[in-house]
Amino acid sequence: MKVCISSTGRDLDANLDPRFGRCQVFLFVDTETQKTEAVENPAAMSGGGAGTKAAQLVSERGAEAVLTGNVGPNAYAALEAAGIKIFTGCSGVCREALNSFDQGAVTSVNAPTVERHSGLK
């Protein structure tokens, strides 16, 4: 399974970024091979629509699940439409969040966890 983690850095030892749409980097991890690819988030500094743009990138990269701290309504709608499972409430180091996911210790959400534009605050 290909998982996307919102991150502050380019490897699994970086901290998880609690913001989905405006995170600095997306880490794409193949949970079977542990191959990791870091992709800068072009929507991070976008004037608007960051969540939707970020969700489109994640979908285009073939992710089946997202691990993040929070997700806003636009990102939630775009990820849900793409069939991507959303796991929020993640924190700490990306590697730890991935381990929690692998162990089934995180649960998916069925609604946004923050209001629009909360990543700007």
Describe the SSE topology.
Elements: E1 2-7, E2 25-30, E3 36-40, H1 50-60, E4 65-67, H2 73-81, E5 85-87, H3 94-102
Parallel strand pairs: 1-4, 4-5
Antiparallel strand pairs: 1-2, 2-3
Helix pairs in contact: 1-2
Written account of the structure:
- The protein has 121 residues and is of the alpha/beta class.
- It has a domain at 1-27 and 43-96: Dinitrogenase iron-molybdenum cofactor biosynthesis domain (Nucleotidyltransferase, domain 5).
- It is built from three helices and five strands.
- It has helices spanning 50-60, 73-81, 94-102, and strands at 2-7, 25-30, 36-40, 65-67, 85-87.
- Strand 2 (25-30) and strand 3 form a beta hairpin.
Order of helices and strands: EEEHEHEH
Note poorly predicted spans. Answer: none
Terminus-to-terminus distance? 33 Å
Helix content: 10-25%
CATH topology call of the domain at 1-27 and 43-96: Nucleotidyltransferase, domain 5
CATH 2nd-level architecture of the domain at 1-27 and 43-96: 2-Layer Sandwich
Q: What's the β-strand tally?
A: 5
Walk across the major sheet and give the strand order: 3-2-1-4-5
The description of the largest β-sheet is: 5 strands, mixed
**Gyration radius from CA atoms, angstroms:** 12 Å
Strand content: 15-25%
DSSP summary: helix tally: 3
Categorize the overall geometry: globular
CATH domain class name of the domain at 1-27 and 43-96: Alpha Beta
